[in-house]
Amino acid sequence: MIERIHHMEALQSARLPSDGFAVVHSAWLALMGMRRNGDLDLILASDLRAERFPGFDPERHFGLPGPLERRIRFMPVDNLYGTFYGARGVDDVIRNHCIEIDGVRFVEPRFYFAFKKQRLLMLRNRWPKLRWWERGLGFLNHNNRSLARKIAKDERDFAWLGGFFDQGGHRQAELQHIPDAAWGLPGRDWRPPG
Q1: In this structure, are strands 40-44 and 104-107 parallel, antiparallel, or unpaired?
Q2: Domain residue spans in the chain?
Q3: Which of 158, 163, 174, 165 is closest to 2 using CA atoms?
Q4: What is the rounded distance in angstroms from the CA atom of residue 136 to the CA atom of residue 145?
Q5: pLDDT at 144
Q6: Which of 41, 15, 19, 186 is nearest to 116 (CA)?
């Protein structure tokens, strides 16, 4: 099933210990058959980060050194994933809040949905603070154009998620082993923010 995820072969060739990281972000959308992921984002356990990547700033994203540095990305130590659902940091998430698929750990999808909600709320909050000409002339400013694209993408993804769950996509053969609680059911954690 992980063959649906772009860059997974490259990640496996990096030979990171399977208990030292978890895949996050849009890899879930690829697993769910909704859309292809662009890059592959990971959270790292503190011991793996210290052992394999000691020279990298723990407060910043960084890429897997080598030719796929822009495609396989590691999140900062203090990221939102370590704060959801009572998690006590990234190490706790990797140990206790992951689903293993084909030998690879993925953060529970409800964590990804919570991350997406937080990001969409933040982006929606930033948009009205832009001056009217910054919004209307986004082609002059890459950051504003990127902000508008991210808002549209997240809103589209939430619409797809609604259809996926309404049609029982989480019950398809490859995904039926994932417990409802990990999906954020029955609380409908996958619904967009208000």
Answers
A1: unpaired
A2: 2-107, 110-183
A3: 174
A4: 10
A5: 57
A6: 41
